[in-house]
Amino acid sequence: MTALPMIINALGQLDNPNAARSAEAVAQLNPSSEQMTIDARTLADAHASGLTAVNITLGYTMGDLPPYEHTLHEIAVWDGIIRDNAADLLKVRTVADLHRAREESRIGVIYGFQNAVAVGEDTGRVATFADLGVRVVQLTYNQANHIGDGSMAPANGGLTDFGRSVVEALDEHHLMIDLSHSGERTCLDAAKTARRPVSINHTGCRALADLPRNKTDEELRLVALRGGFVGIYFMPFLSMSGHATAADVVEHIVHAVDVCGEDHVGIGTDGTVTSVDDLDAYRAHLAEHVALRREAGVGAAGERDDTLPFVLDLRGVDQFRELIRLLEQRGYTSGRIEKILGRNFLDYAGRVWAPEVSR
User: Residue 132: helix, strand or coil by DSSP?
Assistant: First the structure.
């Protein structure tokens, strides 16, 4: 495979973690979008990697910030970032925008949430978020909220009655319902309740690593059977050791393909393209961050002071090329690899997002 296929990261970050502001933010519980660094290196690395588009996290995820107001502010922040870097970035609202990003050699930026708490008690806010360009809404983070239980909620209580109303509103407005971080019952309930296909944009396979952040074969299979999408992350939860490798990423992709079929699996790395240069300094900040997450009750089983939130031998500008090489070694055809790197997300978006929206 000479030319890179369309590469769509179903959950990632645009940031230069080596910049002073971003490096300081690593130690904080809940850094804001304003603390990310979209500089020349960030953009150059994203282009060099072959990235076509990435679903970024913005808005309220955790902490004591006002969820709705903070989320509106973060959307405005990212609108400003894209406006200031219009030659390199493109806000994605439609499938056509994904094609446009590739054709114009820009990086498509997909607005997504990792917690739907900002909806509050008013499902009408879903329309507001959709109008502002949000395209992916994850129902829960690790803990429970008023929509459903997260992966670390001990009750595993499933969708609430209000959560079903949120799912209906997301369906109505053609937004992706992302079940990453959700508890098992919440995931199964949402997949059965939704009229449109749902996704798990960044996860691993629990059959290979029995940790709550990973999904069971039942969850994976149901999402795929209903026309959805599953993205495999480059995270420590892929290995019970907490030190996942590129080989682990490949094994989880292979298992997901075996369970879901080759038309429903992709990547959601949950990381940046730009590598951390000083790993020793990063580890010191990371230990503070993990301790804060533990204290706040938002951490996940498998997070430890020594678990890096990325795969050491699958990072930097060559991460996608290296993954392609490893999948080729497993005997995957160029057509299957093209699906996993981006085509499956593109096709899934076509089944969910409205074909045309006002700008």
Answer: coil
Tally the residues of the chain: 359
Distance (Å, rounded) from C-alpha 339 to C-alpha 348?
11
pLDDT in tens, 52-61: 999 999 999 9
Residue with tokens 């983070």: 141
**Is residue 208 predicted with pLDDT exceeding 50?**
yes
Give which of 8, 52, 6, 13 is closest to 235, Cα–Cα.
Answer: 13
252 closest CA partner among 162, 330, 346? 330
What sign does the dihedral 177-181-187-193 (CA atoms) show? Answer: negative
- Give, as one character, the DSSP assignment of residue 194: -
89 φ, ψ to 5°? -120, 150
Q: Report pTM.
A: 0.96
Closest CA to 37 of 359, 337, 284, 276: 276
CB 74 within 8 A of CB 109: no
What are the residues whose beta carbons fall under 8 Å from the beta carbon of 173, sequence distance 6 or more? 126, 127, 130
**Letter for the amino acid at 57?**
T
Cα–Cα distance between 138 and 159 in angstroms, integer?
13
Q: Which residue has the tokens 């393209």?
A: 273
Separation in Å, CA 262 to CA 97, 222, 253, 329, 330: 24, 15, 10, 17, 14
Helix (H) or strand (E) holding 305: none
Per-residue pLDDT tens over the stretch 55-105: 999 999 998 999 999 999 999 999 999 999 999 999 999 999 999 999 999
Distance from C-alpha of 120 to C-alpha of 69, rounded to nearest angstrom: 11
Token pair for 108: 């498509």
CB-based contact 110:51 (threshold 8 Å) = no
